[in-house]
Amino acid sequence: MEYSYSFFSKRFILAIFITIFSKYIVYILYGNEYIEAASILRIYVWQGVFVAVGLIISKHFMASGDTGQYIYISLFTAFINLLMSFSLIKKFGLYGATFTDLFTQVSTIMYLGLNKKFRNLFFIILKSFYSVCNIKYFINKIKGKI
Q1: Which pTM was predicted?
Q2: Helical H runs in the chain?
Q3: Among the ranges given (24-28, 46-50, 122-126), the one the predictor scored with the smallest mean pLDDT
Q4: How would residue 139 be classed by pLDDT, with cut points 50, 70 and 90?
């Protein structure tokens, strides 16, 4: 689980960095012509954080032998993605597609919170978000004090 925490926290820090400097990143890589892509990047980069959480969740289900439940969660999120894609992409274009993908990743965590059987795992994930956001805890973790 230590590797998972590190993987998650690195993505979280990277997402904050890219969110803050997205205009500069797009400008340096593609020039002023594509500067509007920075707003899409600001949304899309947060998927990396939730993909990391999704990988941790999948590890949990594989280790516990509950792969059937993980398949059910995957079907649930695929259904949400399809519904949102049809409605939001037509109306909002790239913003709709980006938001749909982000929400699909978040819906995996929401599913855990809504299902009594997995609510404990949901609270563990919430606690990990808090831990990463808690700067003092995170600095001590990096220093190896925890």
Answers
A1: 0.75
A2: 2-30, 37-44, 46-64, 67-92, 94-114, 119-133, 135-143
A3: 122-126
A4: low
Backbone φ and ψ for 29, nearest 5 degrees, come out as -80, -40
Are 32 and 86 within 8 A, CB to CB? no
* CA 24/CA 123 separation, integer angstroms: 36
φ/ψ (deg, to 5) at 66? -100, 55
Contact (CB, 8 A) for 35 and 26? yes
Query: What distance in Å separates the CA atoms of residue 1 and residue 122, rounded to the nearest whole number?
Result: 15
Q: Write phi, then psi, for 61 (nearest 5 degrees).
A: -70, -35
User: Band of the pLDDT at 68, cuts 50, 70, 90?
Assistant: confident
